[in-house]
Structure formats: structure tokens, C-alpha cells
Amino acid sequence: MSSANIQHLLAMVIYMLAVVGIGIYFAKKANKNAESYFLGGRTLGPWVAAFSAEASDMSGWLLMGLPGLAYWSGLASAGWTAIGLFVGTYFNWLIVSKRLHKYSVKLDAITIPGFFSKRFHEKNKIILIIASLFIIIFFTVYAGQCLASCGKLFVNLFDLGYHEMMIAAAIFVLLYTFLGGFLAESASDFMQAVVMIIALVVIFVLAVFNAGGWAEVISNAKSYDGFFSLIKTATPSTTEANAFGAAEPYTFLSICSCLAWGLGYFGMPQVLLRFMGIRDGKELTRSRRVACIWLFISMTAAVLIGIVGRSVAGISYLSNAEAENIFIDTATAFLPPIFAGFACAGILAASISSSDSYLLISTSALAENIYHGIIKKNASDKEIMWVSRISMAIITIIAMIIAWDSNSTIFGITSFAWAGFGATFGPLMLFSLFWKKTSYAGAIAGMLSGGIMVFVWKLAIAKLGGIFAIYELLPAFIISSIVIYVVSLLSKKPSSEITDEFEIVINN
Asked: pTM for the whole thing?
């Protein structure tokens, strides 16, 4: 191992020790009871809520997937996706956060499936089971993406085996999440969000400087047909570096597909839990401002790193998968080794902050919702947490299997899981919070139709091409919304107890 590699490793070890220290600090408080472990006792401050929500949501795709996409095909796909995500973030914090916080406190709900179950006063726990199963399925895929990010990072930096490093990352995340639960995860996510945004801005500035300045970057980007356009997409060669064919029009459907990413936020459990876990709903306005500023700076820097990368000498890739290494290669090329190590710790930050969220929420679905809610209702808090840890280990193993293919793209894995959550929970969350006539049957039908349609559209309908090749989140979200509305009108109306409870929440 070279001197530079040793410095890279040293920086990452220092970072990981800091993360572990946070876990140890919060371990006692986290293990006090199930609410403390899964929701931090509703003690999050506005800055921690905002930063941890965005850090846990963004994952490794922000530092690897998004810059790689921008480098590979230009501004259009990455740019419209970033715009959709920003708009979705803003409206999620604006219209969902406060009402969900009040409603979850009123119902004493500490998980998303638990919230839906209590919202409709169900006795047979069908919503609880369906929601929990979808969470386990999609978050396992999500966790696999995070482990793949860690594996690719260590392969690139240290030329070590992908599979060995991915497994090592899984063990670290597993042990850390065992230790501290939601509160430790949220506190470390705050630190990780800071690391991520600093790393992105620094790498962007360095890349522009080494490319000869911003004017040179713009001139070079415009020299590639469609590369610096929001209405065209570039067609890079897979055999010759920085060679392009004729650009293709970026269609209205393609733009809609990218903007549809914003719809995913309404159903994203790792973000929604921060709304539920904040100590005071009045602080959510400040959290919204902090979250939106962080996201705007981070995504702008991430997209522009990819654009600038085409102008940096010595950096070239022949596939989208290879291009996802641009952040790492830029950091190691232009920063002193020790600082490059801390910059690349941003990828660890993103991956760890997301994967621990995904594991914790998945296992809470199993332990709190299914085991405690259905199988053994008198289970003690200690028993629930042990079931959670055992199921966490099993889910981690499955996530490693998903991440085993080193050639899969981080962006591609993320998009499928994002669509799954957005379509399964997004429409139901909006209807549950804003339409008191939403029925129990409508809730069940909406979740099933949204979740199943993501698979059907992705694996079958999209293959027809043409107008059907749209991002699966958009049609699945629309279908779920229609199903909830129609079935609610045709099925048994909610009881007066449920509607009165709704009125109390929205009027307080």
C-alpha cells in the first residue's frame, strides 16, 4: 500500500471512529425503550432533523450516481432529476411535515406502517402487514445500493477486492446500527451531511480550477452536441473517450420522468420519520429552510462535478458505471492524500447514513409492526429490540446479495427502490393527511396497486418502449392515487371516530 493510500485509509479510520463514538454516546439512551430506539424519543432538533433527513435520503448516489450521470449524458437527465427532487423536498417539508408530526403524536405512532394502521383504526392489521412487507422489500434493495457504493469506493482507492470491501462495509454498518438506534443514526447523519456538502463544494471548485476556469468548462461542454442542454441529451461513445454522436431530443416524457422523482419524497420513510421524531412541530419551518438550502447546494455541486469532469485532463470513462467514480478520481487527483481521504469519507458518510436508516426502518417493520403488533403483543421492549437486531442481520445478508454485481449502476438501483416507496406510500400518505373520507379499503387497495405497479411497469410495460418507457414512479403514483379515491368512494365510509380524530388533528 502506497503512502497516499495509507493517508486515505487514516482519514477514513478517523472518520469511522467518530461515527462509532457517536453510537457509543447515544447507546444508553437509545436502548431505554422501543420508542427511543426507533424514533429517538421524539427529541430531534430542527438542524439535526433537516440534515439527517437529507443525508439519510441522498446516500451514495449523490456523490457517485448523480455526478456520473451528468458526466455520461450531460445536463438534461441529471439536471431535471435534481429539479424534481428539490421541488419534491420543498413541498414535502411544507405540506406534509407538520400535519404528520401532529397526527403521529396524537396516535402515538413510531413507525410509518404503525401510523397508517392507527390512522384507520384497523383491528386485523392488514395495512400493518402490507406496509411492513413493502418497506422490507424496497429498503433491502436500497441498502444493497449503499453497500455497492462502499465496495466501489474501496476498490477505486485501494485496489482491493470489491466483494471483500462490500462485506466489510456491511459488517461496520450492522454493528453501528445495533449499537445506537435512531438517535445515534440521526446525530451521525448530521455530521455526515456536513461532510458531504463540504466535500461536494470543495471537489467542484478544484475541478473548475484544474479545468482552466468556468469559462473554459462552459466552452468545452457546449462543444459536445447536447451535453450542456436541458432539451437535448448527449450520446457518448463507449469506445473512444470524450467522443460523441449526434444529440437526441430530450422529450417531454423524459422530462416528466425526471421530475417525477420529486413525488417519491411523499412516501420516503427515512424522511417521514424525521417529521415524526422532531421535538416540536413548530421547528419544522426552520428545518425546511435548512434542508432545502443543503439540498440545493449539494445537488448543484454534484451535477456540475459531472459537467466539469469532461473538461478535466486525465479523467475519462467509457461507461456510465465507470463514470460514477468521477468524484473519487477528482478528489485523489487534486487533493493532498489526507484531505482526499476525508473527501472520500463523504461517500462513506452518504452510504453509512443511508444504509443505517434503511436497516433500522426495515427491522422496525419486522420487530415493532409484525412481531410486536401481530405475533406477540405483550413482548417486552428488550425482546423487541433483540428481534430487531436478528432481523437486521438477515436483511443485511440479503442486501449484500443484491449488491454482489459490481457492474450494476448505483443510480439504477436507487431509482427502482425510490419508485417503490414513492408509489406505495406517497399517495396514501397525502390522502391520509388531507382527505378525511379516505377509507380503510381505499388505503389497502392504494398501497397494493402502487407497489405492484412499480414491478409491473418496470419489468413488463416499460419494455414496450415509446410512451411506455417513462419512469415507473409516475404511472404507479397516478394509478395508486386513482385507486385510493375510487375505492374510498365505493367502499364503507370511515367511522365518525376516525373522521372526528382527523378534524381534531388538522384544527389544532
From this structure: 0.82
